Amino acid sequence: MRVSPTDPALHLLDSDDVARGAIPGPLRAYRARAQEVVDWARVYLCRSHPLLGREGPVCPYTEPSMERALFWLAIHPGADPTPEQVADAAVRYRDWFLELEPTAEREAQYKAILILFPDLPAGRAPAVVDAVQATLKPAFVAEGLMIGQFHAGCGEPALWNEAFRPLRSPVPLLVIRHMVRTDAKFLTRDAATLAAYLERFGDAVPPRLEPAVREAALAHGLEYPPA
Length: 227
What we know:
The chain is α+β, with helices and mostly antiparallel strands. Helix content is about 40%, strand content about 10%.
């Protein structure tokens, strides 16, 4: 377990902490929910799915992240948190994420923080988690980060099969991680997020994604390839 050096209210747990019950006293009541997320990550995110629309695991980075003990869980309790409370938690963890080792680009890409909201009713998750993710996404992307939304009813389709909904999880949560080259199609809907992506990866867009990136850049009036 880690405690933020600048904000002692923030805790990070890895999968071993959850398994051993090494959880701060007020959060121990949520151990079973945290274990649900760890099991979901191992059984679902780390494996392939026939409806995904591509080969490989649902999330290619989860298994190496867990192997490196860089797959962190943060439990954010609260009786039906408001969007403002959820956004505040995400911003505080983002600030810690930017300072959290490793910070070197090669290893940092495997670092992730999953912020769990175990008291958020499933019926309110779309209005809270989805709304916060959409609001914070531009600022996160500008920092070279991604923020993703997961909950039981998440309707976001898979990139390569619009009939599949890959972002469904047993506990409502937000994920913070570094942006990678393959995030291109998550960032084509908005000029600002696409510009931030191109600034970092414009000369290294994966070939499979290049046509969609080129089309989106031209539609948004962005130079492609960037100078």
